[in-house]
Each structure stands twice: as C-alpha cells, then as structure tokens.
Amino acid sequence: MRNKFFAPLALVGALLAAPVVSAATLTLYSGRGESLVQPLVSQFEQQTGIKVNVRYGDTAQLAVLLQEEGRRSPADVYWGQDAGAMGAVSQAGLLASLPADVYENLPGIYKSVTGNWVATSGRARLLVHSLERAPVAEHPRSVFDLTDAQYRGRVGWAPTNGSFQSFVTGMRVTYGDEKTLEWLNAMKANGVKAFRNNGTIIQGVADGEIDYGLTNNYYLPRQTRMNPNYPVGQVFFADGDIGNLMNVAGAAVVKTSRKQKEAAQLVRFLISAPAQEYFSMDVNEYPVIPGVTHNPHGATYDQAIKASPSIDLDKLSDLEGTLNLLRRAGLI
C-alpha cells in the first residue's frame, strides 16, 4: 500500500463533526482486516483523542457474537465486510439509528433504507475479459447473456466465494429464486468453469483458460499496477444490470453502546474525504462520496453509480437461501 495516505488524513480534523480531545474509549468490532483498518483507526485516535480498541474477526462471526452478547456487548461500532451481514445485524435490532447528517446525502446504493448503517466503501461486480480474445463487439450487455452459445466454455466464476454468493443473493432479490436457478443451470449447461476465487479467475483469463470472468472490480488493478501490459480488461454490463451489483462494507453504531456520540463520530470519520481517498487509491474500492481522487485503474465515481442496479441492501442478508439454491444447482 502507498504511504501517501497519511498526508491527506492530516486534514481530517476539519471534516469531523465537532472533533474533541477526549479520554473516551471505543470498542470496534471489525470484519475488515487489521492491515486495512489500523491506519484509519490510528489517524482517528490522533485527531480526536478517542482511544479505539479493535476486535478483529470474521464478519459473520462477529455478527453472531453481537447477538449472543446482547445488552452485555462491549461493542460500540460494528464494521462489516458486506451488506448481507449489515442487513442481518440491522434486522436483529442490534443497531442504533444514525444521525441523519451521516447518511442523508449518500446515494441510495451506499446506505441502508433503515438509516441504521452506511457503506464505507463499494466493491462492484463486473466482467473481466481477455484483451486478445474478447473484442468489444462481443461483450455481453447483461450477465444473463452469458448463457448464449457464443460464450460456451469461455466464462469463469467462483461459486464458493462470498462475493459471488452476495451477487446471487442480489439476483434472487431482484428476479426471484426460480429465474436465478434457471440462470445458474443454464450457465452450467453452457460450460462455465469454476475457480477457487476471484484472483484465480483473472489469472485464468490471462493464461487463456477462459476469455471472460465474473469478479470484483478491485482484483484486476492489483495486477495492472505492477504490469500495465497485463492482458486483461474489465467492463460493466449495461447500466443497472444485476451483474454490476455494488456490494459494500458498512459501519454502524451498536444500539447498546453508552458512547453513541463518539461512536457516530467514528462512523462519520470513515466516510470523510481523506478516509475515502484511502479506500479509493490504496484499496482499489469505490468511495461513497463524490470529489475523491479518481483511481485511474477503475471506473469513476459517477460511472460506478450509474452502472449499479438499485437494490435494498438490507435484503442481501439471506445467505442461507442462496446457499440452498447453489446446492440445488449442484454448485457447492
């Protein structure tokens, strides 16, 4: 990761709402990794004087822990890796209502309709393709087009991967289980190839094993940063297509926290401009606010917003229903 992050974060004090030097201590349950989170936490502590103790873990496991702890939970802020987990925690009644100013100006794809949590960054689903064997004229306009004969044996996916499963959940929410199952079966019949994860899909395209792959936006930039001539590109499907689902990491104030003001301050910090530039430039994820430096290895903020389908993020919580559907299709 770049170290340029620390310079712009020096400006964060002006962006935080009423920053104060405080002896308060917050407990953050983070489903995002320590290498990504700790630089942000350190800068928040320096700017506010608020100490943050972080418990790192799997997003879903931390969500279960919150439910088990109930009123006894020491957590003040929950930071989840995906919208499904955020929706599940929200539906369980574990989150406080955020101050309206935290979320009111965010696009719909970056906030919960309940007002209980907000996205801290976005990760778009899209199509990676060979620059040598997949000319623009052949690109599908919809993820549903990949069942056509011209794509037989040329497409890769990762059914056991969490981001793919979130995408399938989005398809279920939008089109229902039967149409989603029909698509899954049609993809199998069309010779789609299963890979272990998103990174191996991209490598499969580069190696000529497949010509197209369904993955997240931030994997290819990891390659093109090191090799500008890497033989893989990526594109969105047509605007609004479910294949462009924007999954998000999200943050929320825990309902039982006794430090609601300070906890909301941490959430507000995560969507401030300097923190968002970090997500954009260092993590290759999409910022949730405009005006952030554009990462040249991906789409612009406006392009990503326009491409994304409109969906209630809280409804992405039914992972078990998706797993059952994938089992019916014989994919897991």
From TrEMBL:
Record-linked SUPFAM superfamilies: Periplasmic binding protein-like II
CDD domains, A to Z = PBP2_Fbp
Is Signal given among the entry's keywords?
yes
Q: Which InterPro entries match?
A: Ferric-bd, SBP
What are the alphabetically sorted keywords of the record? Iron, Metal-binding, Signal
Can you provide one Gene Ontology molecular function annotated for this UniProt record? metal ion binding
| Residue positions binding Fe cation | Y218, Y219
The positions making up the signal sequence are 1-23
Name the residues that span the membrane: none
GO cellular component, alphabetical, reads:
outer membrane-bounded periplasmic space
Provide the family line: Belongs to the bacterial solute-binding protein 1 family.
What protein name is recorded for this chain?
A: Iron(III) transport system substrate-binding protein
Which lineage ranks, top first, belong to the organism behind this chain? Answer: Bacteria, Pseudomonadati, Pseudomonadota, Gammaproteobacteria, Oceanospirillales
